Amino acid sequence: MKTDFRQVRRKWLTLPLLLLFPVVLITMLGFITVSLFTTDQSSSIKVGLVDQDRSKETQMIVKLIEESSQLGSYLQIQALEEKEAKQQVKANKISAYIVLPASFTENLYHGIPVNINVVGNPKKRTDSRLAKQLIDSVARHISTSQANILTIDQYAKKLGMPDKDRRKLMFAQFKEFLLYVIGKDQILSEEKITNQATAAPTQYFGITGWFILTTVWFLLVFQLLYKQSGAKMRQRMKLYGVSSLQQHISRMAVTLGVVTIVSMPILYGIAHYTNIELNFADYGRIILLMLLFGICLLEILAILENVIHSEKLALVLQYVIVFFLLVASGAIIPAIYFSLMLQRWLSYVFGSRALHWLQEITINQRLYADFSLLFWSAFAGALLMAISSAWKERMS
User: Fold this and answer.
1) Strands, E, within 224-290: which ranges?
2) pLDDT tens digits, 8-49
3) Residue 47, strand partner residues
4) What's the pTM?
5) In what order do the strands lie in the sheet with 96-100?
6) Which of 51, 54, 97, 303 lies in the 20 to 30 Å Cα band around 356?
């Protein structure tokens, strides 16, 4: 370990340049990415609602949908005439308009499927699709209501109820069901999923950039110590009774120490710049988290050196592994953009867990972190590193 520290001290001129290059590159990419993900959250989607039937049922639907607060501040629905709705679509003032057809009520009470048309704005395709999704959800609830109404209508006919009273009963049942649906917030099946990349882009990409930077530093410092030791130096260490496993442990310890000392002040600066409040306990959890992550990563790099005889091939594979780890963790592409099945599988990758809990501690202000996956990954990596080191010494 003393030898590795001496090698780091000898490189006191080139080491800062080695550490500075990833900082400049990631900072430039970070500013570009933040500018792309920073959007105007105050703008809402405006949708028109055209009632061609003008019955009591459709008027009630228009009023309830227009005034329903459950649709949120991001979707504004206003009643319009069809001519006015077409003009506003051409003027790009609304994203789409919904049309309740003239035969809506008759179809509803006679068992004919109810069709609700949506006319989209070609200039706002995404917003138009959202409006279509809303109407599809409303139509499903109306179809369920229609089935209930027709069932009640059949029993009312068997009882000989007059048509006028039966119509009132059907309307009352339709109104009761629709009010129940809206009152229970069932028009839209809603699940809140926070995308930190767009909800807090500065904080998200600041922390993610620091994670990428620390990962790259682990790789570069570990490789620097390997190159500086040289084949002759490693052979000399063996003559002194220092095993390959001990050399790996020494390089890992020096790498973890150097990267931790250099990276933590940068994290403090990022937290201060992005208004993330961290106390001493939070910094302690982050250091432990990154140390476990660094141990897992360096163990993989050491195993590759043990099992692959070609130094160039081992170097290429180390870079490939680090790149895959960054992609799998969601550091390069936010994990929320992956499929649910892929997210489930990637959650077992130690890099994904490390970045997840790093974001939870910093951005979401969690007071705890789960280190179990990282701990067991480090334990398994230590066993594999010991086995591969013993195999390497026996083969040599």
Assistant:
1) none
2) 555 555 555 555 655 555 555 555 555 555 544 445 678 888
3) 77, 96
4) 0.57
5) 75-79, 45-51, 96-100, 117-120
6) 303
